Amino acid sequence: xxxxxxxxxxxxxxxxxLLWVALVLVLLGINGVLFYxxxxxxxxxxxxxxxVQVTDNKLQAQIKxxxxxxxxxxxxxxxxxxxxxxxDSLQARIAGINADLLKLRSFKAGSFSxxxxxxxxxxxxxxxxQLKKKDDQIAELKQSNENLYTETTTLKERQNKLTDTIxxxxxxxxxLSDKVTIASRLQADNIxxxxxxxxxxxxxxxxxxxxxxxxxxxxxxFNLARNDVSPKETKxxxxxxxxxxxxxxxxxxxxxxxxxxxxxxxFYTMKQDVVYDNTKQALNFVYAKGGDYKIGQHTVELYEGGxxxxxxxxxxx
Length: 317
Prior knowledge:
The chain is an alpha+beta fold. It has 3 helices and 11 strands, in the order αααβββββββββββ. It starts with 7 loop residues before the first helix and ends with a strand.
């Protein structure tokens, strides 16, 4: 074969190489474009994910803000209830916040638009402003109540002190009155007993002993002691003659009756009204039993104003 006929074969091989090179370059270009597109897509997805996450964070923050507002408004409502005030307006606001929370929780991931964010943010600002104003009003009311409570407590303390003072004065007056009453009681001095027989003959025995069968009447003499405290007025003087067994001689027909001694009803033998003049005036009682006297020791008691003035004894044999 002629060597010149072999030259075209290398040219054919070169064409194939160029074709493969071109094919590789095309494939590399396609891969590059695909890599670029994938990278862009990934970046966009990451940006979208970040944007959704940011939006969700804002949504959760807004929900938290409205939950805090609700808690604060409920706290205000309780404060007003403690103060005894109406809270209808607060209940209406709490209901509105509940509706806002329901709306916020209904948003799906990434659907919390900028417009909605602005709207809820502005509403939260308005609610926060109203909350602060109401807190200031409640604080003023609490301070007023505290001041009123302090004033009331002070007045009660003063009233209690005044009541205690009045009670002390009243007790002092009662004690003083009791002392005056005791001090003003009359006393009987020089009490002396004698007896009269049927012939009006009076017998006076230093031993205060007499024969019973000869006694017709009993005579008791005494003096009203001086007392500068006791008022000068009419006094009722009571005589009690107690027989040996302790029974009081008592007869309505001879001037007897009942009176009160230490809160108890007692019988008296005789009584007389005397105008007390603080001159140690002398008085006497003459008692006729109208029957036989018992043998034994008799007791004579003198009273004025229900208090014992003095007493003595005499014996009948």
